[in-house]
Design a protein that fits this description.
This protein has four domains: about 1-100, Winged helix-like DNA-binding domain superfamily/Winged helix DNA-binding domain (Arc Repressor Mutant, subunit A, Orthogonal Bundle); about 115-320, Rossmann fold, CATH 3.40.50; about 325-390, no CATH class; about 415-575, Arc Repressor Mutant, subunit A. It contains 25 helices and 18 strands. It is globular and about 85 Å long.
Length: about 575
């Protein structure tokens, strides 16, 4: 067993320990960490890592970024100031912490987890956890169950499944087989997550029982596993889905079986068909299938949505949809992550607002604040306490690097035109109208509305929010980014000159739409001119807005606008004379 700081990598049991607490890691992220730990101090290139984990199979290198994000979250590591995993741009990774052999013995998990242990890593999901437990009770009684755990990226789907597997000593009361869908594999290797789950099951404590059932009813499937295990070769034969269904039911007859398939939005058609078959078979079986998925993913087409909806309409499955956390839940999550019961209230307000209740985003934003020294750990009466080094109100902390990379991975799967349209939308704010996109791009607003409607149905970046009536009587749909962080990534990825040109086009289009009533939108026009660096036009628009506020007897607002106009005019003058 390898040790680094307070962590121990248990390669025998395939798990990670922090002191005496076991940290759940999916198989592939664990394999990545193991390879890095076993090669400390050495630069591991992307190709070397991919070849070691996926030999003779092409995998997009971007998958490593996703796994690194997951590992840094588990280790509490920071990409900008790494204690464990250092990123070398365009080269690879290096494990920088000293590694030694662990001289002690592996901790043994207690027979029954306490509630606090069960809920480590996520909060405010007690109701969802109870629903999973109730569904398992039905499955254990012979009523097969198929459950979809759905939600956006980072909302806590895997954390919920992990807590369910650890609850009530589930590993002792049920056989658990877990497989991970991988982007790019769905079109290349049928049943990839199923094969990973079977491989894990056959090498677990229930492996002998599983192998006997596969040998008896699905020998071709067992033969496929011989490439991954030390099992004897049972000869070539085409694996048949019906054979595997029968084998899984045979395993479940001896002991309840939980088949977990993660990130089903990346699954192949064969895997979906197998789930459908398992859901539709009429024989009693102590079988529970749990699938996590994003139903509005860049990689998801209508196939998965229609598949789930058909099962729901036939009452052959159930869905547990995870929503955002409340502000109090975010504070509780941060308290657990930072190991401090009472945290500054301002921190919770800021992180909840910026993350919009997404647990992964909340943790990443907190780590970003620590890296930027806005949140520091100081000695307070002999006890280290997290404290704010500066007020957070009005702070533009930017997008944490790891989150920006994760969003970029999703953006890169969009077509160039779709990327351009959402970049144009980001010039307004979180909410943006179709006419503004049309002005920025010089394109037809109706065509852009149709494209955005299709995107809103397909991806989680944006939603349709309604429509506005323009001064000429026409109507224009408007949309919202589901997270302000998404909007910031789209905004920052544009070239500065291109962004400025588009801001000016939107400001000028505002003036055309409100011709004769420009004062009504002068403040918004000023924002676009200022963002484009057109200081004189921005100052002029602010003075128009100030005069309009004065006419409406809003003198305080008028004074503030004139002061802003003076500052911008002074900036323009300084630039001219410098």
């Amino acid at each position: 067993m390898n040790q680094f700081e307070q962590f121990r990598l248990d390669t025998a049991n395939g798990c990670l320990w922090r002191n005496d607490t076991q940290i759940a890691l999916p198989p592939k992220p664990f394999a990545v960490l193991r390879y890095l730990v076993e090669n400390p101090g050495r630069v591991i290139t992307h190709n070397e890592l991919l070849d070691a984990l996926w030999p003779e199979t092409f995998v997009q290198p971007q998958i490593l970024r996703t796994y690194m994000l997951e590992l840094r979250k588990a280790l509490g590591d920071d990409a900008d100031q790494p204690r464990f995993i250092q990123t070398l741009p365009k080269r690879g990774y290096r494990f920088v912490a000293p590694v030694s052999e662990w001289p002690g013995t592996v901790p043994i998990a207690a027979g029954k987890a306490e509630p606090e242990e069960v809920l480590v890593g996520f909060v405010n999901r007690v109701e969802e956890l109870d629903r999973l437990k109730a569904e398992f009770a039905h499955a254990a009684g012979g009523e097969r169950r198929v459950i979809f755990v759905t939600g956006e990226t980072g909302i806590g789907k895997t954390a919920l499944v992990d807590a369910f597997c650890r609850s009530q000593n589930m590993t002792a009361s049920a056989a658990i087989a877990r497989g991970q869908c991988v982007p790019g594999f769905g079109a290349k290797e049928e049943y990839y997550p199923v094969m990973e789950a079977l491989s894990q099951l056959c090498t677990s404590a229930d492996g002998d029982m599983a192998c006997r059932a596969l040998c008896k009813l699905a020998p071709a499937w067992l033969a496929q596993l011989c490439r991954q295990t030390d099992l004897p070769d049972f000869g070539p034969r085409q694996p048949m889905p019906g054979d595997l269904c029968a084998a899984l039911e045979e395993i479940a007859s001896a002991k309840p079986l939980i088949l977990i398939l993660e990130d089903l939005h990346w699954a192949d058609d064969a895997t979906l068909n197998l789930i459908s078959a398992l859901a539709r078979r009429r024989a009693k079986a102590k079988l529970m299938v749990v699938a996590t998925c994003r139903l509005r993913s860049v990689t998801t087409d209508h196939r998965l949505k229609a598949f789930k909806q058909e099962l729901l309409m036939g009452r052959l499955c159930k869905e547990i949809a995870l929503g955002p956390l409340s502000r109090s839940a975010v504070m509780q999550l941060l308290g657990r992550e930072l190991r401090q019961e009472v945290l500054p209230e301002e921190l919770g307000v800021f992180v909840h607002q910026r993350s919009e209740g997404n647990p992964l985003f909340a943790i990443a934003m907190t780590e970003h604040l620590i890296a930027q020294r806005f949140l520091v750990r100081l000695d307070q009466a002999g006890t280290p306490q997290w404290q704010l080094h500066a007020p957070l109100a009005g702070l533009d902390a930017g997008v944490p690097g790891e989150l920006a990379q994760m969003v970029e991975l999703e953006i890169e799967r969009l077509s160039p035109r779709e990327q351009s349209v959402l970049e144009a939308g980001s010039l307004m704010n979180v909410a943006f109208p179709a006419w503004a996109m049309a002005a920025a791009l010089g394109e037809d607003a109706i065509e852009l509305e149709e494209l955005c409607d299709a995107l809103a149905r397909r991806v989680h970046f944006l939603e349709r929010a309604g429509q506005d009536e323009l001064p000429d009587g026409s109507r224009s749909a408007f949309y919202v980014f589901t997270h302000g962080l998404y909007r910031e990534v789209f905004y920052q990825r544009q070239a500065v000159a291109r962004r400025a040109e588009r801001h000016v086009r939107i400001a000028e289009r505002l003036g055309e739409l409100f011709k004769g009533r420009e004062a009504n939108v002068a403040q918004e026009m000023a924002m676009h001119f200022e963002a484009a660096g057109h200081w004189e036009r921005a100052a002029a628009a602010l003075r128009t807005a100030a005069d309009h506020a004065g006419l409406r007897q809003v003198h305080l607002v008028a004074a503030e606008l004139r002061e802003r106009a003076s500052r911008i005019a002074e900036k323009a003058e300084n630039l001219t004379t410098s």
